[in-house]
Specification:
By secondary structure, the protein is an alpha+beta fold. It has a domain of 158 residues: Cytochrome P450 (Cytochrome p450, Orthogonal Bundle). Helix 6 packs antiparallel against helix 7. The chain is globular. The chain starts with 24 loop residues before the first helix and ends with a strand. The mean pLDDT is 95. Bound molecules: protoporphyrin IX containing FE (HEM).
Amino acid sequence: MTTSVSNRKSSLPPLADGEFILGSARAMLANPIGFLTEQYLKHGSVFRIQAATQRLTVIAGAQANQFVTKEGTNHFRSWEVWHPQDTEFGAKSSMISLDGADHAQMRKIQKRAYARSAVDGRYNDILGIVQTEIDTWQPGQPVSVTAAMKRIVTEQLGQITTNTSPREHIPDLLKMVRTMLFVYVTKQYPKIMLLDPRYQRSKARIVNFVREMVQAHRDMPKGTRAPDLIDDLIQAQQDDPKFIPEADLLFAAMGPYIAGLDTAANALSFILYTLHQHPQVLEQVKTEVDTAFSKGDLTAESVRGMDVLHRVILETLRLYPIAPALTRTVSKTFKFDGYTIAEGTGVLIGTTVPHFLPEHYKNPHSFDIERFAAPRAEHRRPGVYVPFGVGSHTCLGAGMAEAIIMVSVAGIIRGAKLEADPKYKLKIISTPTPSPDDKFALKFLGKQ
Ligand code: HEM
């Protein structure tokens, strides 16, 4: 039985441009979304890429995103792509590696802790963490933005999702997460990198930190504060110990850092970049932020009122997607745009390709926050705006990410006078999530 979105005759999908032996590896490393978009425009919505040892069939475009939304659970599995990462921690599974009913159950357990509502009432904590970072900046000196955003976001995620400060462990978390993503997800590093003693030491210290954090939660009398991710995992383990054995619980406790650290921090870096490239928009955001703070402490309502800032975030995530594509394995053969894609095929879903197509976005390569305002609302068509993924694994932390990002940008703008370096030319690096390179710095002129 196959599912089809077209009647065209099947044949092997075209092979994307590539070099001898390396295939598309270099182009995919240099600019994955640029390459996927170019190949989509050349070959259409289905093509194959060979990148060094990896062979993947790409499906891309708004129709592909709609297909995954409607039919994804019937035709795709996450298991092969994500399960190897579980084994690194002796876990039998994790939310991102599970499929079907088990995935739905795991998502339900962790949903509350990752929801936007988990940030409500924590705005002053988020702002306090931003201010602590600003207090370390020296007037007249450049601030290396991505590194600073990683320090801020790590602490925020730890406080909000686990009521625990990971501050002393930031270098270990960064080393561990980065190595794991490179080896297991993008496969840019060989497995031998996992034997690197520096990685091993970082991992051991993080496992120890997480173990102590879980024990501290077990020792805490119930009802002392609102339950967080760790409390919910402990409760779920008590309800069904086979579903969440101890190793799985410890791995899930690292989830906010594995899923949220690079993604939210890199998004913040790009947002500070775009804002400082567009001084008029920055001025509008400053006015909005001042208005919001003039009413007292930030509230969910005053944050919602920062419409220009919200559109800056939407536009930055469109133009600089942090998760440009998703990898899956076909669990049941299907037809797409005339091609039969067989069970067992490795698939790359080029989710954010539509972000760069003129049929959806006017001048897609230019930064334009008006495209999100009525009546244009260019993003409000199915499958064309996909920064947080599609299908059953769609980002569970999207609401939380948006709230953290909005409040953090507001805190930075309110707390610090920053100046762009006119000589800086944006270079995007993938480590492996895309971010501005280490040369992206803003000069700290002083506190506001
Ligand atoms: C701008 C920032 C972020 C972006 C662009 C982003 C993007 C994504 C994408 C594309 C996926 C789907 C992965 C897949 O299907 O293979 C995902 C999954 C996920 N994200 Fe995010 N994310 C962001 C921030 C966060 C944050 C801050 C958290 C929480 C602390 C978070 C938690 C998660 C979780 C738990 C999943 C797995 C959901 C599941 O497997 O069902 N994300 N994210």
